[in-house]
Amino acid sequence: FADHTEINVPTTVYSLVQMDNMESQIIAATEESLLVIEFNKKRNTFNIIKEIKIKLNGVFLSLIDLGNNMLLASNLFQSVVINLDTEQIAFELNGYCPIPLKDGRICYIVNEDFIKIVKLNEIGYEEEIPLVKEKFGEDEDISAINLIRDGVQLKNGNILLISMDRTITEYDLELKQCIQVIQTKIDFMDTCYELKDGRIGITAVDNGNIFLINRLSNRSDNQLILSGHNNTVVKILQLENEQIISAAYDGKVKIWYKLLDGNFNCAMTLHLFNDYIRNFLFMEDGRILITGDDKTLRALGVKNYIGNFTIEFKPGDKKNKIIKSFELIDNRIN
Questions:
Q1: CA 25 to chain CA centroid, nearest Å
Q2: Is the C-alpha dihedral spanning 238, 239, 240, 243 positive or negative?
Q3: How remote is the C-alpha of 295 from its chain's centroid?
Q4: How many CB atoms are closer than 10 A to CB 2?
Q5: Are the beta carbons of 108 and 98 closer than 8 angstroms?
Q6: Are 106 and 91 in contact (CB under 8 A)?
Q7: Residue pair 268/310 in contact by the 8 Å Cβ criterion
Q8: What confidence tens digit (pLDDT) does each residue in 202-249 have?
C-alpha cells in the first residue's frame, strides 16, 4: 500500500461508483444527496465539485452507473434513476434489488411474484420471470421474494438471488425459470459476489465470516469459510490476481490471497476506522477508496503481498506514519 489520500465529506457516504465514461469522477451516495467527486491524478487530490440533493426513502445502499444516469437503490425497497445533467428523477422502478445486466437491461424484484427485466430507454419494454415459491413454517406459504437480500448476474448470464430464508436461487433468463435452489445454513445472508472460479462469496448480517459456496457441487462440504472480521462484512471484491478485498463494520480491510487448494489466507489487515466501514471502491488507478462513519473517504494503493501482516492506525494518525508502516512491509517482503 502507498499513496494514502483522504477527503472530508459532509456526512457518511454509503455507496461509491466510478464513472465509466469519465474515470476522473466518482459518485458518492449519502443519506440525502449524491456527491460528484473529481480525482486529480497529478496532484493526487479529491474534490467535491457538485452535490445533487435527493429526497427518497431510506439510505442509498446501491449505485449503478448508467452513463448520464445513475440508478439508486435504498434500504427501504425504493429504486430510482437520476439524470445527472437535469438532477431529476428520470425513471422509477416499482421494485427493489436492481441488478445490471451485461446487455444494458435492468433486472429487479417486484410484486412478490416476479423478477422484472426492463430497458430504461425503451418505454413499454419489459419481461417477467416467475419466482419460486417455497414453504416456510408449518402452516403458511410465503413467497421467497419477501426475503430477497441481494443478487448478481453470473458469468453464464443467469441471475442468482440470496434470501433471508437461507436459500440461494439461480434463474435462467432465456428459459425464464428457476433452475436451482441451494439450501444453506447461513443465517441473515446479506450480499453475494461471484468469484473468478465460479464460487459465490456470501456475507451475512452480524457475522464476520465470508462464506464461499460452490453452486456446481451437491456435496455437503461445498462451503469454505473465511474467518477474520469481528462484525458484518459489508463488501467483498476479487482482483485480477484472484486476491480478495473485504471490508467490515469492525473498521478493518483485509486482503486474502488464494492457496493452491482453493482456500484463501489473510495476507494483510488494515484497521482504518474506529467505527463502521460502509463501503469501498476499487479505482482504475489500482487504489481502493474506502468510506466510514467518520465522514472521510480514504484512498490506499494496492500491491501484491504474501505473508500475514496487521497494520493498526487511527483516523488521527499522520500520513508519514502510515507510509512508514507500508515501507516496513515492503522491506520485509523484498
A1: 19
A2: negative
A3: 19
A4: 13
A5: yes
A6: no
A7: yes
A8: 999 999 999 999 988 766 567 899 999 999 999 999 988 899 999 999
Rg of the Cα atoms in the chain: 20
Query: Would you call 115 exposed, middle or buried from its count of C-beta atoms within 10 A (0-12, 13-18, 19+)?
Result: buried
Enter the C-alpha cell of residue 285: 488507478
Q: What is the DSSP letter of 132?
A: P
Using the structure block, give the residue that is written with the C-alpha cell 467527486.
37
Question: Letter for the amino acid at 68?
Answer: N
Q: How far apart are CA 122 and CA 38, in angstroms?
A: 31
The Cα 35–Cα 12 span in angstroms is: 11
Give pLDDT tens digits for 179-191: 888 888 899 999 9
The strand ranges marked E within 205-295 are: 207-213, 223-226, 233-238, 244-248, 252-258, 264-271, 277-282, 287-292
In this structure, what C-alpha cell is assigned to residue 150? 441481494
Higher pLDDT, 289 or 313: 289
Q: Estimate the share of the chain in helix, then strand, then coil, as percent rounded to the nearest 5.
A: 5, 50, 40
- Among 46-50, 298-302, 303-307, which stretch is predicted with the lowest mean pLDDT? 303-307
Burial degree of 254 (CB within 10 A; 0-12, 13-18, 19+):
buried
pLDDT value for 43: 77
CB 267 within 8 A of CB 277: no
pLDDT of residue 321: 44
- Give the contacts of 209 (CB within 8 A, at least 6 positions apart): 203, 225, 226, 227, 229, 233
Residues 6 or more apart whose CB falls under 8 angstroms from that of 123 comprise: none
Return d(Cα 208, Cα 199) in angstroms, integer: 19
Which residues sit opposite 17 in a β-bridge?
27
Which pLDDT value is given to residue 331? 36
Nearest to 4 by CA among 320, 299, 324: 299
